TrEMBL record:
The keyword rRNA processing does not apply. It comes from Streptomyces benahoarensis. It comes from the Bacteria. Keywords: Heme, Iron, Metal-binding, Monooxygenase, Oxidoreductase. Belongs to the cytochrome P450 family. Pfam families: p450. InterPro entries: Cyt_P450 (IPR001128), Cyt_P450_B (IPR002397), Cyt_P450_CS (IPR017972), Cyt_P450_sf (IPR036396). This is Cytochrome P450. Coiled coil: none annotated.
Length: 383
């Protein structure tokens, strides 16, 4: 039940010693995320953080209007309903095939790791497919993504400098690789996202190559680990609620509200670690001065009893489930339809194909990250 969040919510807007303002209640989080004086651009912080990017072109998650809106619109129009013709709708067979292939490889094994054997390889394969990365390059791609994401996690056992160096190298390699791929796509007719972005003139014109590469990088970072964690948190939650797991076998349509409830109850993204105040902002009678850093506790907001009835209960029949799992406001996750569909297919097939699954360790070991929450391994025994 996350007692720390309950404690935090007693002070909805809490000022820390370093002038960071921590916001933990549903109403205040949504108010702030919809405030036009809020910036996602690190350059607007009075004390930029270590994570302030060295990238030449920041991706649109780190930009404000009008640049953010232009780039987001240009990427979004390829992405799926209601922005048809959608890549997501067209990807259904690829999603199902990938899931089947991974589960075929697990068949007959007494013990599987839901993370390494399934949840980890799945979204990388999906993003490769989306971008048009050839199959034979996938293993290299996977290593870069891994190094990049590990460099963001906190783990006291490994040397942070070594991990950061690996992350910087991976970022460079990935950019170079994507640049090469993009060059081949210019003038082509392919239906993949890189080809579409390179050749398609929409109402906003065309992205530059730099902008395309930053966008592709963003999709990778924003779309991989998050989906891994949603699938893994989902399987863990189902194994802890065997009656729901049994229901899902009999009522496949339950998976849609179930994934929505997971995004509220065990979301992959717990925190938006920073936003900057463009000018003084008043939230719940507290004035947050211009240039301050604002931290938004999304997972706490999704468990706020003033917004959700019996919030610590996992209830796939819950109505009015406007959780904060994908954020809110102009930066609302745009991979939502894809992430939902991936997780729906993954959980449906896991539950259908695993034979009397049981948890080996509860709780499982968790990834050490201040922002993302999910097990690093989830061992399940069958039969
Ligand atoms: C933004 C969560 C999957 C692409 C966000 C934000 C959250 C989030 C909380 C808001 C960040 C902010 O306001 O600063 C998640 C979760 C996912 C998921 C929980 C999986 C369960 C994906 C996927 C993709 C994706 C699969 C793409 C393939 C993006 C992008 C943004 C974003 C591009 C930035 C949007 C903008 O700045 O306008 N996501 N995401 N996400 N997400 Fe996701």
């Amino acid at each position: 039940p996350y007692p720390l969040y309950a404690e935090l919510r007693k002070t909805p807007v809490a000022r820390q010693e370093d002038d960071t303002y921590v916001i933990s209640t549903y109403r205040e989080i949504t108010d702030v995320l919809h405030n036009p004086h809020l910036s996602s651009d690190t350059r607007n912080l009075s004390h930029p953080t270590a994570g302030a990017e060295e990238q030449t072109t920041p991706a649109f998650i780190n930009l404000d209007p009008p640049e953010h809106d232009r780039l987001r619109r240009m990427a979004m129009r390829h992405f799926g309903p209601p922005h048809t013709p959608g890549l997501v709708t067209g990807m259904e067979p690829a999603l199902t095939d990938t899931v089947s292939g991974l589960l075929d490889d697990c068949a007959g094994k007494e013990r599987i790791d839901i993370v390494d054997d399934f949840a980890y390889p799945f979204p990388v394969a999906v993003i490769c497919h989306l971008l048009g990365v050839p199959r034979e390059d996938e293993p290299r791609f996977r290593i870069w993504v891994n190094d990049l994401i590990n460099s963001i996690d906190y783990d006291p056992k490994t040397d942070p400098k070594e991990k950061l160096d690996k992350g910087v190298q991976a970022r460079k390699d990935l950019r170079q690789y994507l640049g090469g791929l993009l060059e081949q796509r210019h003038g082509g007719q392919g239906g993949d996202l890189l080809s579409r972005l390179a050749n398609d003139d929409g109402p906003d014109g065309r992205m530059t190559d730099e902008e395309i590469i930053s966008t592709a990088n963003l999709l990778l970072i924003a779309g991989h680990e998050t989906t891994v964690n949603l699938i893994t948190n989902g399987m863990l939650t189902l194994l802890r609620h065997p009656q729901v797991l049994r229901r899902l076998r009999d009522e496949p349509d339950l998976v849609v509200p179930l994934v929505e409830e997971l995004l509220r109850y065990e979301p992959p993204v717990h925190i938006i670690p920073w936003r900057a105040a463009y000018s003084d902002i008043t939230v719940a009678d507290t004035v947050i001065p211009k240039g301050s850093r604002i931290m938004l506790m999304l997972a706490s907001g999704s468990r706020d009893p003033n917004r959700f009835h019996d919030p610590d209960r996992f209830d796939p029949d819950r109505r009015d489930n406007q959780h904060l799992g994908f954020g809110s406001g102009i930066h609302l996750c745009f991979g939502g339809p894809l992430a939902r569909r991936e997780t729906e297919i993954a959980l449906t097939e896991l539950v259908r194909r695993l034979d009397r699954p049981g948890l080996v360790a509860d709780p499982p070991p968790y990834r050490r990250s201040p922002v993302l929450r999910g097990p690093i391994h989830l061992y399940v025994e069958q039969g």
